[in-house]
Amino acid sequence: MNPTNVNINMNVDRMTSSLPSNHPAAGDDVLFPDVYVLEILLAILAFLLIHSLRQKKRRGLPEWPVVGMLPSLIGAVRNNIYEWVSDVLRRQNGTFHFRGPWFSNLKCVVTSDPRNLEHLLKTKFPNFPKGQYFRSTVRDLLGDGIFNADDDTWQRQRKIASIEFHSSKFRQLTVESLVELVHARLLPVLEDCSAKATHIDLQDILLRLTFDNVCMIAFGVDPGCLRPGLPVIPFARAFEDATEATVLRFVTPTFIWKSMRCLNVGIERRLKESIKSVNEFAEHVIRTRKEEMLDLRDAHDTKTERSDLLTVFMRLRDESGKAYSDEFLRDICVNFILAGRDTSSVALSWFFWLLDKHPEVEDKIVAEICRIIRERGDCGAKISGDVIFRAEEVKKMEYLQAAISEALRLYPSVPVDHKEVVEDDVFPDGTILKKGTKVVYAIYAMGRTEGIWGKDCREYKPERWLRDGRFMSESAYKFTAFNGGPRLCLGKDFAYYQMKFAAAAIVYRYRVKVVEGHPVEPKLALTMYMKYGLKVNLIKRNESELQEHFKT
Ligand code: HEM
């Protein structure tokens, strides 16, 4: 007798002993309950078989009583959830309903259809805000900042920030801060690693670069994450911890994280502490900036005035003529740091990984950079490594722009985004949307959709972005890496400039070689980090290699 039978019989014995003696099973026939159990098992098996055949016929996700489609999701999370969503969307012609367990938040419509995206992000924009669920989940960290606001609060910040982002003073700030960060900080760290022939985590280095950069733009303060020795910076650490803990709320039932917050325990306690550190840092910067502005005003000095976002918002007045509160100023800065801290660095990490697999693309980028330097007319003197690209040269790097866009198409920094339906609506593909429904748009899946990009959609081909050698942008509803419509990424131009400037500085000097056998896969987070970072070796380009490009 196998051990399973022993167990069943033991349980049955216990059951039968409590039955009245005239019950047919109460006597000596212990085999009868085994048949009973067998029948139940067979019934379950038949149910599962019929159910799965029905689901297969519908080509949809299997949906079970109570747990809904959760079993499929659990399987997907253990592998690559983005590939899984892409596959389901391909089978369901671009849109499907996901229903999680009863009484959970996991209910939404998922789409990758560009017609639906245009409807959602532009045509019916007011009907699809971020929504109450999102706002209440991230409010502790983001307050009323642009990322978390809808309606008037959002519109006001968007308008002011948009004017600022397009001002010449701001552009100058971004150009200068990047020269400083790349040449005085990034390249020395890379040079050290190349000289010692040790490998580094390029993703970590790039994250430090963009964190310092966005803090300089938002706060006018350089936290100094990217320095030799790669120090741990308390503010950067607190910011990272706060973001990670906030993201966890999305996969935790609301009543659980709210109870934990109330009791101040576990991850919610750590979140509270991290937010406190972020706030203390922000309050300190705001306080000292106020003092600095007063000093400048007293000295009638307008020349040394800063042009970071914090200073811009501090000079403005709200609709009732009052200065913005410190709390609101904090929200503005924290939101911009969140928006710009890791999106560009993560995109660059995937770009360098793709480049390692496509040396022909790398050659073309080096050739383009060398051609642009040659146009200066003093190339011989500039090959040696101290080249600093000028803003107009970075603009001319169109092949590089195509190569970065292609990386973003396949590995968008924000792989999925979401909205909430205000009033009942219907998508252009016929999907019915009930008020309150959450809509998820699958940006990663869009890059892998043949109907959008053709049969070679999974291949890395920067040429698809070029017409007669010039970079051609795509509709935001096909290429949604930067979102679209009124909420199009405000930092898009800046991000391209930043990524091109940093990538050109690196590619021109080094061949970035991914360490053999290093595993590369996306992490499950709001931003598509590489789960294990990007371990690389940097091989310095020699002059003769660059001279070859200068000749061609
Ligand atoms: C490769 C780099 C970047 C990518 C792929 C990217 C992508 C996105 C996406 C998808 C959104 C929409 C998010 C949402 O509403 O849920 C967004 C919004 C935004 N991004 Fe970016 N972003 C990048 C870099 C930056 C940078 C460097 C900054 C600023 C320094 C920035 C500032 C913003 C802001 C302020 C918003 C909010 C716009 C609004 O809601 O009106 N982004 N970005």
Please outline the helices and strands.
Blueprint: H1 3-17, H2 31-58, H3 70-78, H4 81-91, E1 95-99, E2 107-111, H5 114-123, H6 132-142, H7 151-165, H8 168-196, E3 200-201, H9 202-218, H10 234-248, H11 254-263, H12 266-298, H13 309-315, H14 326-341, H15 343-357, H16 359-374, H17 379-382, H18 391-396, H19 398-410, E4 416-420, E5 425-426, E6 432-433, E7 438-442, H20 443-446, H21 450-453, E8 466-467, E9 470-471, H22 492-509, E10 510-514, E11 535-540, H23 543-551
Helix pairs in contact: 1-2, 3-4, 6-10, 8-9, 8-22, 9-14, 9-15, 10-12, 11-12, 12-14, 13-14, 15-19, 15-22, 16-19
Bound molecules: protoporphyrin IX containing FE.
Protoporphyrin IX containing FE is lined by residues 146-147, 158, 214, 217, 336, 339-340, 343-344, 347, 413-414, 417, 481-483, 487, 489-491, 494-495.
Residue share in helices? 55-70%
Structural class determined from secondary elements:
alpha+beta
Distinct small molecules bound, one entry per kind: protoporphyrin IX containing FE
Please state the average pLDDT score: 87
Count of alpha/pi helices? 23
Shape, principal axes of CA atoms: globular
Number of strands: 11
Strand content: 5-15%
Task: Give the radius of gyration.
Answer: 28 Å
The largest sheet, given as strand count, sense and whether it forms a barrel, is: 4 strands, mixed
How are the strands of the largest sheet arranged? 1-2-7-4
Low-confidence spans: pLDDT under 50, at least 5 residues? 1-29
